[in-house]
Structure formats: structure tokens, C-alpha cells
């Protein structure tokens, strides 16, 4: 009788300490997140609130939070406003950038996972390093390459040919610049995604006689999709916000949407209008990002299998 | 046979893309050694004159100092915040973790020119005068999330039972953190520090709006590219690139040592 009474108590004891530790873990996790949450609250959300406030302020004024008008949005939604052209340019260029980068990066991501072996760490470093060089410097390097009497033109003339094509200051070169700048942002999520594909599954399919195309379409692509989607989303969003490519390489032959926002803030000194535009862009990007992120399991992607 | 041919094609393609990635950097380096003021290729006379001028310039000296100060402060603050952020991201199971994981990605997915402008508005709304110190804060908004992810990858590979064992042996929480958690996370923290410094060093869009009257290297380069090109532009650009490469090389070697020690 006595034994029976004690036995359940003994069993309960370790469980309750485990529970206690678990309860403490909850609070530790939240406490660890606190500094980041505070930083982003002050530095990321608060400025968005400020932009939101400005978007409803009297045009060409600085009366934030003291005036309320929809005039800025009315100006933007006016069909004669050129911001829509900018918006379509930005979206179109961003979509093309994503499509081109997916094709360029896929073989490299595959190689980093399965072909390069011990070289893949070094090759990854070579792909990361350009991120640590200001995009201005890299894009200006392309100007020096493509410009009249530049590296390409000069080399072709030296070889006795008629010289290089005039590609600078066109929409095409802007697209080229975006593809160039955002390659790492497609490549690395894609590489993480392809790492999620279990190799024995592919081997099993091959042993059962599946063709290469079939394996790629039915196994590799669907299983690597989370990573590929993050890469696509990231490059799309960054390309929507890109300005340097259109300014440095494109020579302002087209005006992209972020450039319109900048113009409103700088040359035309119309902060409320610029803010209204920024609010629209933020909503567009925010909705897209939140939708895509809600579908992803980050623990699985980044290492907790 | 077909397999080998595919692998060769992948190698060729990757090397081709790498060459294309480094081509503009090489073009910049070439232009910086051009003696005449305007660029023409093939270069007629090479000289180190513009490098010397860049090194002697007092204005550039100040700009470099500003860039280094910002990057150093960003590194210190970001790594401390992001280490805890990474533990919350990957180590502990807590309510709201999934939401937090997504929240932290938002600044990375946000266009930086717009973020910079938003921060300028924010500073303006609360009456803070922008200077290089506000740029430190602005850089952190973007760099802390990146560094958190970098360290989180290390945290995922870490065995929580080691911490549990230390608790069971009677260690206090600070002791466990200092003696167990931190040494195991060092390689990740080190990579995070390198990322923080180098991303701040090369950042342009956030600096543009938040440095006020001060100027960083990428800002100065952009201003001169738009108006007033001299070979000092590619010269300083190449120096900044070489500086980053040197730091990455030194940091990478130290990181390898750290990893080896963590594994031992």
C-alpha cells in the first residue's frame, strides 16, 4: 500500500522539474528576443509610423501628425501621374530579374551542393565577397567596362574591330545591373533549398528507373521550393526598391519607383507626397513578404531538421 | 559519362559567372592606375599618382575615419544584440517564436533607400539631428537581422544537452552562458562580426539619408561619380575593396582556428 502511494509521487517529481525548466525556457527565449524586438520597434516600426503620418499631412508641408488630408494619395492615383509608369518599370524589371537569376543561379546552387565538394566553401566566399563592396563601386566598374573608349570598346578597337555596342544608359543595362547586383540573394537561399532535398530519395528514384527530367520535376524542384521561393521573393523585393542600377548604369533613362520617392523628398521637397508613395510601396512589399513568409518553416530551412 | 559532362558544364558556368562578378572590380582597379584624368582603354601610361593623391587627401582621411567608426560601433552593438536574438531564434522554444522569426526578416526584405528615408523622417519627427551616429543606428536596423541569421545557423548546430549538463552540475546561469554557451557559439559570433563590419563598411542607401553632414566612403564615391570624376574615385573604391578583402581573409583564417578549437 505504502509503495503504491509513493510510486506515482516519484514519477511526478522529475516531470515537474522538467516542466519548471520548460516554463523558465519560455521566459528566457522571450527575454533574449527583447533587445532585437526593441531595436526593430524603435528603428523599423516607428519610422514606418512616421512615414504613415507624413503621408496624410498637407502637401509640401512638414506638419506631421497635426494635419490630415488625402490630397497626397489623390495626386498619386491621378492617372496622368508618371509614378505609375515608374511602378510598372520597377515591377517589370524586378520580374525579369527574378526569372533571369533563377536560371543563372540554379546550376551554381546545384554545384555548391553536389558537384564542387571541398571547393564549395571557397566558391561560396567568392560569391559572398561582392556584398562587401559597395554596389556603387561595382556598378561604376561596369560603366568603365561598357563606356566609349572603355575596356570593352578599347579592346575591340585594339583588335581591329569596329568597337563595342553602345549599351550604357538604356533600360536593358539597368536590368543587367540588377541581375548582377542581386545574384547572391538568389543563389544562397536556393543553395539552402537544394540542401533540403534528401539524396537517397533521388537515388531511389533513379534505381527505380526514373529519368533525369522526371527526378528534377517531381523530386528536386518541389523539395527545394522553399529556398527557391525565398530567393525569388528576396530578389523581387530588393529589385523593386533598387535605385543605384537605374541611376549609375541606366543614366536615368528610366525612372524607377524608389527614385520617384527620392525625387519627392529631395528636389521637389514634398515630403508628404514622397511618404504617400512610400506607404503604397511598403504595403505592396509588406503584403507580398508576409504572404510568402507565412508559408515557410524557417527552422527546417536553416538547420533544425 | 553524361554525368561527368553535366558536372563539367556546371563548373564552366560557375567560373564564367565568377569572372563576370569580378570583372567590374578589375576595371575599377585598372582605371585607378591610369595617369590621365579621363579613362581610356588600353591605358597609355600607368601611374600610382592617383593612389598617392588619395592617400594624401585630408578630406578622404576624414571620410575613411567616419566609415571605420560607424562600422566598428555597428559591429559591437549588433553582435551583442544579435547573439541574444539568435538564441531566441533557434535555441529556445517560446511562445511567439514563429512570429519573431518572421518579424526579424522584414527589415532584410525592405528596400533600403525607402528604409533610409523612413528613418530620416523618424529622426526629423522626434527632432534628432542626423550625423554619423544616427547612421550607426540606421545600419543596425538592417545589419542586426542579418547577423542574427548568421549566428542562428551556428545555434542550430549546438547541442542543448551540454547546457543542461552544466545546470545539473550546479552552474549558475551566468556561468553556463560564459563557460558553455559562448565558447560553443564563438565561430558563429565571429562570422557575425565580420558580416556586421563589412556590410556597414559597404552600405550606401542607408548612409545616404542618415549621416547628415558627415560622409562615408560609398557616399563620397557616389557624389564624385555623378559629378567630378577623377581617378581618385576608382582608386578609393579599389582601396575600400582591398581593405574588405584583407579583413575577410584575416577574419576567415581566425574563424578557421576558432572552429578547429571549438571542434577539439
Automatic annotation (TrEMBL), chain A:
Q: Where are the transmembrane segments?
A: 32-57, 87-108, 115-133, 173-197, 223-241, 273-296
| Places the protein is found | Cell membrane
Q: Which UniProt keywords apply?
A: Cell membrane, Membrane, Transmembrane, Transmembrane helix, Transport
Tell me, in one coarse class, where this protein mainly resides.
membrane
Which GO biological process annotations does it have? transmembrane transport
Q: Which GO terms describe its cellular component?
A: plasma membrane
State the similarity comment. Answer: Belongs to the binding-protein-dependent transport system permease family. CysTW subfamily.
Q: How does it sit in the membrane?
A: Multi-pass membrane protein
Q: What is this protein called?
A: Spermidine/putrescine transport system permease protein
Task: Give the superkingdom in one word.
Answer: Bacteria
Question: Would I find Metal-binding among this entry's keywords?
Answer: no
One short Pfam family name for this protein? Answer: BPD_transp_1
| Classification via SUPFAM superfamilies | MetI-like
Instruction: Describe the location of the ABC transmembrane type-1 domain by residue ranges.
Output: 87-292
TrEMBL record, chain B:
Q: Among the record's GO biological process terms, what is one?
A: transmembrane transport
- What are the record keywords, sorted? Cell membrane, Membrane, Transmembrane, Transmembrane helix, Transport
Q: InterPro entries recorded for this chain?
A: Bact_Polyamine_Transport (IPR051789), MetI-like (IPR000515), MetI-like_sf (IPR035906)
UniProt-annotated location(s): Cell membrane
Protein's UniProt name: Spermidine/putrescine transport system permease protein
What are the leading ranks of the lineage? Bacteria, Pseudomonadati, Pseudomonadota, Alphaproteobacteria, Hyphomicrobiales
GO CC list? plasma membrane
Q: Where does the ABC transmembrane type-1 domain lie? A: 64-257
The membrane spanning regions, by residue number, are 12-33, 68-92, 104-126, 132-159, 180-201, 235-258
Any single Pfam family the record assigns to this protein: BPD_transp_1
Note the PROSITE patterns from the entry.
ABC_TM1
What membrane topology is annotated for this entry?
Answer: Multi-pass membrane protein
> To which protein family does this belong?
Belongs to the binding-protein-dependent transport system permease family. CysTW subfamily.
Report the principal subcellular site: membrane
